Amino acid sequence: MHMNIPYPSHAAMTPSSFTDPPGWALAHSDTDIRDDEQAPTSLWKAGARGEAFSLLRFPVGAPPGDYALWAVVYWWQTPTERLPVTSSAGLSLGDHALIATVTVR
Hints:
The protein has 105 residues and is mostly beta strands. The chain has a single domain, classed as Immunoglobulin-like. The chain is built from no helices and 8 strands.
């Protein structure tokens, strides 16, 4: 699955993961956020934007069901502290963004 998600320049890493209904991660990927010149966020000017690309392999043999695909952003120095997510309307969405729900049959 390909994700192309714009992030603000105060972010440093983006993990994405498939989670099962109880919220356990089944697949996980950490990715640096880079601009068009592949510069890390530490070199960006205020307001700059970049992209992160993650490749997640869905586990073979996962039982049928609905699985959530999440994206979160955190500062690399404090990876346990996720940055807040807001909608385009400015509403708080918590500490992660639901990208999609994948149904395995």
